[in-house]
């Protein structure tokens, strides 16, 4: 009791102190807008503001779980995520000489911000989806903070961290018996998650929007249907602005998980009418988002009218370039192709395929994930068999299968590592589901309690 009181006091003190973060952040952004701090000084100016703005949510989560160390773990993760944006910037300009998408978003976003500040809101863009949306968003950001690429990298990385935080919250809600610490360590500290979604670009935006959607999914599947639908709908809509096909996969996974799941919380809180309404809304949302895929593919230079296999083959030709390219099996949605595609998407490159430092780091990460997957095979199998009692696992697995089939045609390790940051947070759920060790401990504990009750009865009779 005394320990909990001390914990609550410390967390409460942190939360109270960090409440100043919101007004300080607004004030800081206004100063940044007025003074237009340039160069690396924007980093020095922004980093304390981002920590102050994030600390209240982190302290509240630590208080929810009654775990003081969680606060510091999340703060360390935020610090590393922001450092990851500086590493990403360095590699983009020192290794690739600025030949990255972030430069396109920065250059045109700078032009848009100058128009917006002058009161001219004509974007000149063909649409507000896909690449055009990222340019528009970057223009809005620069309208507030000024056209500073360092600050842009930092803010997008910070946005991605919020997505990771909501993914963590979703796991704690939807898988209450899971290993929360293991999931947090994997999610927040995997090199891919620290590095790739840490620049101006779609990866950071998709991680944020998918995290928000996952949080809504967890709410829906735990019985808070209306609130969850609102949050998930917003998250999926934001994801669809950049990549509607990925949003459609997530929506379809949610629809199936909702209709298949049978959790006690949902049974208590949801009426038959609410279940029917929610199921209809989810199916309609899935169809709407997936229908946007045709337009998206055409924007990417792919012709969906040629058929799925042709689209995948076209994507293979487009990505099989550069020093990180590799040969992939014939593309398609064949069940025989799925196991190979799953291994490729999740666990390649292998160590023997590493030919540069970047690929070696990715290969080491993939090897660790493969070892963890094999060691947790029993727990994963039990979670899959109990999919109705754990519908979040159904959502994760179905989204993962759809993602694997859609991205199985990628033939470049660099592109593969970048794109699978949209999948890894969901796959990591399977590595942290309730395991055999937990089950045995509970069995032993139950047996111990039963033995004590028998002994007590014998003593009473004596």
What does this structure look like?
By secondary structure, this protein is mostly helical. Among the domains are: 201-300; 319-431, no CATH class; 437-462. It is 77% helix and 0% strand. The chain has 23 helices and no strands. The chain has helices at 2-18, 21-35, 41-65, 68-95, 101-117, 130-145, 149-174, 180-189, 191-195, 202-221, 225-242, 244-260, 264-269, 272-291, 293-299, 308-319, 338-347, 357-375, 377-385, 391-407, 413-419, 424-430, 436-461. The longest helix is centred in the N-terminal third of the chain and has 28 residues, at 68-95. The protein is globular.
Précis, in short:
Helices cover 77% and strands 0% of the residues. It has helices spanning 2-18, 21-35, 41-65, 68-95, 101-117, 130-145, 149-174, 180-189, 191-195, 202-221, 225-242, 244-260, 264-269, 272-291, 293-299, 308-319, 338-347, 357-375, 377-385, 391-407, 413-419, 424-430, 436-461.
Write the layout of secondary structure elements.
Elements: H1 2-18, H2 21-35, H3 41-65, H4 68-95, H5 101-117, H6 130-145, H7 149-174, H8 180-189, H9 191-195, H10 202-221, H11 225-242, H12 244-260, H13 264-269, H14 272-291, H15 293-299, H16 308-319, H17 338-347, H18 357-375, H19 377-385, H20 391-407, H21 413-419, H22 424-430, H23 436-461
Helix pairs in contact: 1-3, 2-3, 3-4, 3-7, 4-7, 4-8, 5-6, 7-8, 7-10, 10-11, 10-12, 11-12, 11-14, 12-14, 12-20, 17-20, 20-22
């Amino acid at each position: 009791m005394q320990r909990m009181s001390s914990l609550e006091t410390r967390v409460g003190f942190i939360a109270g102190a960090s409440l100043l973060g919101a007004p300080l952040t607004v004030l800081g952004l206004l100063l940044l807008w007025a003074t237009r701090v340039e160069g690396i000084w924007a980093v020095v100016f922004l980093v304390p503001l981002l920590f102050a703005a994030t600390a209240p949510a982190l302290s509240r989560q630590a208080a929810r779980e009654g775990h003081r160390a969680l606060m510091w773990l999340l703060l360390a993760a935020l610090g590393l995520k922001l450092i990851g944006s500086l590493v990403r910037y360095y590699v983009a300009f020192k290794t690739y000489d600025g030949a990255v998408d972030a430069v396109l978003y920065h250059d045109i976003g700078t032009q848009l911000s100058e128009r917006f500040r002058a009161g001219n809101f004509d974007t000149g863009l063909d649409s507000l989806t896909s690449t055009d949306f990222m340019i528009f968003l970057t223009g809005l950001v620069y309208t507030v903070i000024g056209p500073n690429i360092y600050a842009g990298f930092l803010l997008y990385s910070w946005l991605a961290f919020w997505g990771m935080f909501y993914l963590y919250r979703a796991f704690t809600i939807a898988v209450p018996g899971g290993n929360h610490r293991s999931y947090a360590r994997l999610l927040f500290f995997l090199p891919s998650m620290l590095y790739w979604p840490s620049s101006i670009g779609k990866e950071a935006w998709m991680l944020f929007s998918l995290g928000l959607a996952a949080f809504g999914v967890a709410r829906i599947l735990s019985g808070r249907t209306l609130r969850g639908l609102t949050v998930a709908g917003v998250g999926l809509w934001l994801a669809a602005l950049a990549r509607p096909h990925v949003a459609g996969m997530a929506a379809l996974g949610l629809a199936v998980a909702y209709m298949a799941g049978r959790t006690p919380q949902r049974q208590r809180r949801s009426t038959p009418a609410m279940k029917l309404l929610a199921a209809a809304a989810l199916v309609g949302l899935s169809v709407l988002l997936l229908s946007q895929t045709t337009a998206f593919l055409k924007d990417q230079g792919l012709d969906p009218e040629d058929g799925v296999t042709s689209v995948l083959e076209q994507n293979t030709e487009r990505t099989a370039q550069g020093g990180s390219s590799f040969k992939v099996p014939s593309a398609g949605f064949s069940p025989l192709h799925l196991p190979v595609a799953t291994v490729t998407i999740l666990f390649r490159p292998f160590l023997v395929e590493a030919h540069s430092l970047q690929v070696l780091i990715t290969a080491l990460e993939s090897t660790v994930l493969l070892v963890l997957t094999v060691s947790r095979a029993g727990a994963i199998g039990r979670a899959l068999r109990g999919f109705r009692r754990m519908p979040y696992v159904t959502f994760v697995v179905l989204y993962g299968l759809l993602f694997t089939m859609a991205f199985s045609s990628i033939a470049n390790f660099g592109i593969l590592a970048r794109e699978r940051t949209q999948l890894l947070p969901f796959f990591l759920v399977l590595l942290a589901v309730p395991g055999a060790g937990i089950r045995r401990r509970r069995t032993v504990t139950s047996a111990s309690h039963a033995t004590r009750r028998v002994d007590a009865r014998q003593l009473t009779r004596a």
